[in-house]
Amino acid sequence: MRDIEYYRTRPKIDAHNHLNLGMRYASFLSWSGKPIPNFPRKMNGLDEMHDVIGKYTRPRCHTQEDVVALIDMSVKDAIADGVTVLEGSIDIGFMVHYQGNSDAFLKMVSNFVSSYSKKIRIKPELGLGKTFDKAKITQWAPILMESGVFTSIDLYGPEIEDGIEDFKEIFKLAERLGIKKRAHVGEFSDARSVRRFVEFFDLHEVQHGIGAAGDESVLRFLADRKVRCNVCPQSNYMLGAVKSLEAHPIKAMLDAGVPVTVGTDDLLFFNRSVAEQIFDLVSLGVITETDADKLLAEGI
Ligand SMILES: [Zn+2]
Q1: Which of 106, 135, 207, 209 could form a disulfide with 229 if both were Cys (CB 3.0 to 4.6 A apart)?
Q2: Which fold has domain 4-297?
Q3: Is 175 a catalytic residue?
Q4: What is the pTM (predicted TM-score) of this model?
């Protein structure tokens, strides 16, 4: 039986990491100075999580220095886990702290890529929140995408189809620019919605996608199209999307031939790194060591 060090020392990807929430709670607390009560804890879905974000994390971020500090903590904690490729999401909303100055924002992002290049390969992702100001997204997203700094985009927010038409043009632009297209779907939503999002946006990858496991034909569809799912078992457990890690459908996804990686989602909230989660899954008998090696090899 391999120990945790085996997984920590293997090169690996974290392809599902929101860099504003990607650090350990200890890192966050030493910076913020304001404890989050009874934390990290199991939560009742995304509403409770957004409650904590609204009360404790978002109000702590005021300045460009704060943005840099948050991302920096996340990168350092990824390096500590032995992550070698970090496809980390940077929310377009951070542009507010740059007064909409895209040059300054892009310079900040590029600085991370270059200053950490010897330790970790950072592939910045532009995160698009469905609930963020649509006018600002329409204005800023094309400029940011055309800069060449971002290697992927990710759409997240309520997993409903209402309003997804508003983002169609941005995904078409991503296609023209050769930017990888991702969206959050199938975290709480079903297999049909996963298929629908993949087809509507012509997604390369899905963030979560575990709902697909409810329908074998959708798993086959993902496998045939080689749509990678960047799943986050600990996040799914802590938010109640699955009852337990043992009940997580990652094995069914792997066995169906769907490309899968394990990501942290929000390390601040879920507190299990990529290495730790793969170790947990093997220890609990959810996946085999061969599956673990497949997960580690994906995306690097
Ligand atoms: Zn996520």
Answers
A1: 209
A2: TIM Barrel (3.20.20)
A3: no
A4: 0.98
